[in-house]
Design goal:
alpha/beta, single chain
Length: about 375
């Protein structure tokens, strides 16, 4: 089967084996990256659904999730950002909005995966966002035609058999060398969580920990995932240093929280401002990354004087962000990860364990009254 192109448009590509019938292209022409995003994203939501029993969704970019979530409440910022009003929202739409809202700047042009058949409510929302495609275990009547009109008729719609089980081994060829390894089928369950410091883990935190582990399993390593209330609020992916993962994920989580500050959530931008531009301005203001030129441009756009929170107010608001669970795909090597996590409001840490500094990590968690659970399972993904 010929593909639109490989990793890059100058590379021709095709599927030579294993295509089977478990994935069907209902609309569009996928590239290699489209397939990699879709297949990894599907595995994430399918495993999250099995592990939590809840509807799950993921927003993927460049073979890592920008966000992942299970169904749950939508706060005012999410409802306003995605034009949902105050009415009831179906579980599938709620799960995807929670996944996309984690890092909407990164989710721009995403590949979507959802654990249930796509209904019309979600499809109508997707007609309003910039996305490259979706993979799901089925579609309600009329939904494929509706989605197929996106991107000038080039939107990807993939259907997957939810009962498909991969072979016991997987192959990869790199520079003329073919590797074979066992497919990673180790179940992610609450039974992996072995508390080392702190009291028992509450049921809601167990869901966060399990979702974090599943998310880490399908994120380019090294990775650290911050989870709160059944949604990832910060993912630090593909960093060579563990502390860089911890800081990156924490910074994204804090930016997510600062988007809820009234002075940022209520930026008086013109009504004609497109959604993504509005989100980009809010994210830049929340992250504190506005350059002098951008600050001037933003002030020119705003309808009248509007003060953004200063450093003191930002710090005060950030301190209200707590009850976060940190999940690391590999062991935390030094206590600087715990020091940083505490600053970002982390109250539970989940890691494989096994570092030479393991006792120091536990001691740091004790000092900050952070619950520490070790799993004995590394979740690297490349």
């Amino acid at each position: 089967m010929d593909l639109r192109y490989g990793m890059n448009p100058h590379q021709k590509a095709r599927i030579t084996d294993g295509s089977g019938d478990h994935v069907r292209v209902l609309h569009g022409s996928p590239s290699v990256i489209n397939y990699l995003d879709a297949l990894n994203a599907w595995q994430l939501v399918a495993e999250a659904r099995r592990a939590t029993g809840l509807t799950a969704a993921a927003s993927f970019k460049h073979v890592s999730p920008a966000g992942a979530a299970v169904v749950g409440d939508l706060d005012e910022t999410m409802r306003r950002s995605w034009g949902l009003g105050n009415g009831s929202i179906g579980s599938l739409t709620a799960a995807y909005v929670r996944a996309r809202d984690a890092d909407p700047r990164s989710s721009y042009g995403d590949m979507i995966a959802v654990s249930e058949p796509v209904d019309r409510e979600l499809a109508e929302l997707l007609t309003t966002v910039v996305s490259d495609g979706i993979i799901a275990p089925g579609y309600e009547p009329g939904v494929v035609a509706l989605l197929g009109r996106k991107k000038g008729g080039r939107y990807l719609v993939l259907d997957i058999d939810p009962g498909y089980q991969p072979p016991k081994t997987e192959l990869r060829t790199v520079f003329g060398i073919t590797f074979e390894q066992d497919t990673d089928r180790l179940p992610i369950t609450a039974d992996l969580l072995r508390p080392v410091e702190g009291g028992p883990i509450s049921p809601s935190v167990v869901i966060d920990a399990v979702l974090g582990m599943v998310t880490a399993r399908y994120t380019q390593s090294n990775t650290v995932v911050y989870v709160r209330g059944g949604m990832s609020v910060g993912i630090g992916a593909g960093q060579q240093s563990r502390i860089d993962c911890t800081l990156l994920a924490g910074t994204k989580a804090r930016t997510w929280w600062l988007r809820r500050h009234p002075a940022i959530a209520d930026l008086p931008l013109p009504d004609s401002t497109p959604r993504q531009q509005r989100l980009n301005w809010q994210i830049a203001a929340a992250a504190g990354t506005l350059t002098p030129a951008q600050s001037g441009e933003l002030n020119a756009l705003l309808a009248g004087a509007h003060d953004l929170p200063d450093d003191r107010e930002r710090s005060s608001w950030a301190q209200r962000f707590e009850d976060i669970t940190l999940v690391s795909d590999g062991y935390l090597p030094f206590r600087d990860n715990i020091d940083a996590a505490a600053e970002f409001g982390v109250r539970t840490v989940v890691e494989p364990g096994g570092a030479l500094q393991a006792d120091t990590i536990a001691e740091a968690c004790r000092e900050y009254r952070i619950t520490l659970a070790r799993t004995g399972v590394r979740l690297f993904h490349h």
